[in-house]
Design a protein that fits this description.
This protein is 36% helix and 46% strand. By secondary structure, the protein is an alpha+beta fold. The protein has one domain: Nuclear Transport Factor 2, Chain: A, CATH 3.10.450.50. It has a six-stranded mixed β-sheet. A hairpin with a 2-residue loop joins strand 3 (74-87) and strand 4. The radius of gyration is 16 Å and the shape is globular.
């Protein structure tokens, strides 16, 4: 029975790391985001951007998000349907995500599934690979450009 409880606890720790990543982004708490990442992360948003996956230093991801997300008045990520496959100190999490991005009363929505890989190091789970599998974008598709412009104007 204790082995089952240990596995469940690890599964919960893994899911909590993923949730902290998105909560940190929504809160603009870049320290919280950094604490979820390995030093280098394979980032794959190719299904949305068309750019190939690449290994990026975690600081680079944070710099990019810091230079984009605050252009929105707020963002809200909702995550669901976590499926965790763990093998020792490695894990793959597949889950659904919906991201609402607001400027005033206008909304840009991104929906998809994610495949996030983590490793356990020093008793802590950290993200080594993060892939979005885009299902659809909805709402005002001009909002990302407006958010980027708002950041440039603040610059």
């Amino acid at each position: 029975m204790s082995e089952f409880n240990l596995r469940k606890t690890m599964k919960e720790q893994i899911i909590e790391t993923v949730i902290r990543l998105f909560a940190g982004a929504d809160e603009r708490d870049w320290g919280k985001v950094k604490n979820t990442f390995a030093e280098n992360v394979e980032l794959d948003y190719s299904s949305m951007t068309g750019n190939p996956a690449s290994v990026v230093p975690s600081e680079g991801i944070i710099t990019a998000w810091r230079g984009f997300l605050p252009g929105f008045d707020k963002t809200h990520h909702q995550l669901a349907d976590f499926y965790v496959m763990q093998n020792g100190s490695a894990a793959l999490v597949h889950y659904y995500g919906k991201a609402d991005h607001f400027i005033g009363d206008e909304l840009w929505i991104v929906e998809g599934t994610y495949d996030t890989e983590l490793i356990e190091t020093d008793g802590k789970w950290i993200i080594t690979k993060h892939k979005l599998n885009l299902i659809k974008q909805d709402g005002n598709l001009d909002l990302p450009a407006r958010a980027a412009a708002r950041i440039s104007e603040q610059g």
